[in-house]
Amino acid sequence: MRVLIAEDHHILARTIATGLRREAIAVDLAGSGDVAERMCLLNAYDIIVLDRDLPVMSGDEVCLRLRALKDPPRILMLTAAGSVEDRVAGLDLGADDYLAKPFDFAELLARMRALSRRVPAPPLMILRHGGIELDRGRREVRIEGRPVELSPKEFAVLQLLMEARGEAVTHRALLDRAWDEHMDARTSAVRATVSRLRGKLGRSDAISMDDGKGYRLC
Question: Where the record puts its DNA-binding region(s) (predicted)?
């Protein structure tokens, strides 16, 4: 999952981002409404956590503009305005959910996971490939029934490869979905993560690299 946090309170934004990254979620930050809109036009976000009180362009205006897109991200409004009237107004603008500040991070994460399941064909919670079993909900991986400890990035990359069902996933696609916008496309992060995954999966040929196409789970 890739998420945009549109929040002008920088400490809060960084705190949310840190917590989400620990859950293997790729996070970008925007400190104003105009930047948030521009980033949504450039990147395919699954969810935008949107403060209503943003500088330059309000969160309400961002919400209205995003809803006009062909394939908008799901919108979770996160704001200090938490009265019933405020929640109704936010939902009427097109928000998918609304959470008032102060909030508990566990609830924010649960709401985001619920939003991520609101798709026409809900994804399987458990993915299987060969002897590999990946549980999205529990964030667990087993190899031939044996639990394997993965880092958040290793889990995210493995999930993307398993979702591809044997098709190649490009280096750029892995960067876009598992890392954030600040990661240089020339970085060795993907290659290093795949190398560690091969070791933890117990086979050097568990993930192949197709020249010009990307990585494929064998």
Answer: 124-218
